[in-house]
Amino acid sequence: MGKESTAVIDVADELKQLNSSQSSATAIDAVTKKKDERQPWRYRLFGRPLKKENLPKDNKQSVTTSDGKKSKEVKKPRWWMFWKKRCKVGPIPEEQKPKEECHSKPKTPKHHTKKEEQPKQNNVPKDQLKRKKEVTVAPIKTPRYKQMSCLGFPNPVQICYMNSCLQSLLTLVCFIRDISQQQQVWSLSPNASIIRSLIDIKESHFSSNARQKLCVLAAFKKVVSLRDSEFEDLTQKDAHEFLTSVLHQIRSLGQELQVLAASNGTTYSCPVENNMVFKMLNTRKCKSCGTGSAREEDFTNLSLDMIPGGGTVHEMIEDYQKETELEYLCKCGGTVSGQQSSFINLPRVLVLHVKRFKYSPTYQLIKDHDPIVLSREVVVSSKKGGGCYSLVSTVNHIGPTATTGHYICDGVDPDVGQRDPTDRWFTYNDAVVTETSGASVCDHRQRTSYILFYQRQE
């Protein structure tokens, strides 16, 4: 059997002597009693080992030679005794209570040990751990309404008509996005300076540097005046005429940019045509013979007559499409014909111009102060189907007469969209920007609204 301990040999001899007796049960009890009396003190303190033959006696180990004699017992090292007393050589409990972790970390379940968690942490790449740390310490983006003080445009001279129109165009997210996405095309054309100037204004919109904004505004005004001399001087101008001129100049670059894009293997789509251009069908019919003609015409905005005493936007659109009489000499000899306009298709952004300025019987330009019931939503029909539009911006003329006054703009916050439940709008009064709501705009701009921007609901 190899090596045997002294305790095992003594127990075996005693069992042989007791087995020869008549009562085996009494003998076993006697042996157990004698054996318990000789139990070492460490067993009585710390418990008996499960297998006695595999455990040494105290810190000594007997060695049996080849002739069967036992050599001197060899003492184990002193460090073994030190750790034995410290750990008390007791059985390891099945579950050890984990140390309490920092209060900022979640507690680990009892059935999870640190050895099980360590490989999971080691499997995570170091670059991902760095990214997580960067995300936790990243600064919170400042909300748009806290930056509204930077959204205004300076007005050193009488350019409020330009500032209000630019703020309305910047509110049209779809229009600005179409321009920005085609930068690789128009950036190659030296004639597309009006588009570059408009994007410069858009990029400086959130800047608090008034001098920088003044430079980009002056550059934009100069570019527009190169093709339209009406806006060369520093006097007050009409906002509707300025907006129409800007849209026309951008649209006039379409054919040139399409050829330039085709030469570079790309395509170009005019942002004005994509968002604001729509077609109207103008028909004329003789009242006498019934013969007539039809003609299609493109529009970027629609000029509406005001209803005396006040009316809604929908009533003004319907009134525009009613049949009117005009003097026309027909081949049959008739002198009266009926004329009517209707929508062929509908744009993504419907720009409506309210005719507040008109000439009196004495040919003097006057301002009409009749109210308009502004609708947050309006439904328009056409030959290719109808569409529902939501009000997103207004250009307003504040002043008693047509020759004196001031232009301001109201626009929905583009960051929250037209269906924002908070209904957050901004009023742009040149460099002064205040927060408002769409409901407030409809209530307070009935007598001052001049240009209305309606965006189609998808």
Summarize the structure.
The chain has 458 residues and is α+β, with helices and mostly antiparallel strands. Helix content is 35%, strand content 20%. Mean pLDDT is 79; it is low at 1-9, 21-25, 51-61, 87-122 and 127-142.
Question: What can you see in these coordinates?
Answer:
It contains 16 helices and 18 strands. It has helices spanning 6-19, 24-37, 41-46, 78-87, 114-123, 126-136, 160-171, 173-180, 183-186, 193-203, 210-227, 239-252, 254-263, 271-275, 313-320, 438-444; strands at residues 60-61, 74-75, 278-286, 292-299, 302-304, 311-312, 324-327, 336-343, 349-354, 357-359, 365-367, 372-373, 377-380, 387-398, 406-412, 425-429, 432-436, 449-456. Helix 1 runs antiparallel to helix 2 and helix 10 packs antiparallel against helix 11. It is globular and about 120 Å long.
Strand fraction equals 15-25%
Corresponding CATH architecture of the domain at 150-277: Alpha-Beta Complex
Tell me the major beta sheet.
8 strands, mixed
The total beta strand count reads 18
- Count of discrete alpha- or pi-helical segments spanning 4 or more residues: 16
Report, as a whole number of angstroms, the end-to-end distance. 92 Å
What structural class should be given to the helix and strand makeup?
Answer: alpha+beta
Determine Rg (CA atoms, Å): 47 Å
CATH class of the domain at 150-277: Alpha Beta
Averaged pLDDT: 79
CATH superfamily of the domain at 150-277: Cysteine proteinases
Overall spatial form = globular
Low-pLDDT windows of residues: 1-9, 21-25, 51-61, 87-122, 127-142
State the share of residues found in helices, binned by percent. 25-40%
Predict the CATH topology of the domain at 150-277.
Cathepsin B, Chain A
